[in-house]
Amino acid sequence: MAGRRQLKRYREKRDFRRSPEPSGGGREPSGQPIFVIQKHAARTLHYDFRLEVGGVLKSWAVPKGPSTDPRQRRLAVPTEDHPIEYAEFEGVIPDGEYGAGTVLVWDAGTYRNLRAEKEGDGASMEQAIEQGMVEIWLDGKKLRGGYALVRTGGGDDRRWLLVKMKDEWADARRRPTSTEPESVLTGRTLEQIAREEVAGSSEDP
Ligand code: MN
């Protein structure tokens, strides 16, 4: 279960009386670890790439979103750990709150740590992140196959790159962020979520 300390930054940034986001009571891991990619129309549109590691969702903001083309390197900036429950969060974070804007669950599924399976490596996800060299196999609805998340600079350079690995799921012609914009949870678009959530909240006293 996620410790209080791990989600401290997440909780400090948010007012859960105003934001519909989960505060994160902690949830026991169940079997294969999950990943989720949330499309987030905040001040600037980006995709939040999250991996279940040690009871929380390790998170990176990917401005252009993931690609299925191994030649495309996508900038990924680490953000604070999120609670596991966040993987099912879809809705509108109100104006004035941290991350204000609409959130859509763009892809979700489970993943495998490829380094843990490698002879002579065996790195855990915690070690892989610490080393800035993550290799995972995604089993999502839109994304499948190997992806590498690699930290580029040292010291204060906190930038990472998200790159599709070369395998049978690599496809330079697919543009899933453009052609498959809907939520894998509800089939809704960002606009539909925004409209429905606003309509819902206006009925509140
Ligand atoms: Mn975000």
UniProtKB/TrEMBL annotation:
It comes from the Bacteria. It comes from candidate division TA06 bacterium SM23_40. Residues 38-151 form the DNA ligase D 3'-phosphoesterase domain. PANTHER family: DNA LIGASE D 3'-PHOSPHOESTERASE DOMAIN-CONTAINING PROTEIN (PTHR39465:SF1), DNA LIGASE D, 3'-PHOSPHOESTERASE DOMAIN (PTHR39465). Keywords: Ligase. NCBIfam families: LigD_PE_dom. Pfam families: LigD_N. Residues 1-33 are annotated as: Disordered. This is DNA ligase. Residues 1-11 have a biased composition (Basic residues). One of its GO terms (molecular function) is ligase activity. The keyword Ligase applies.
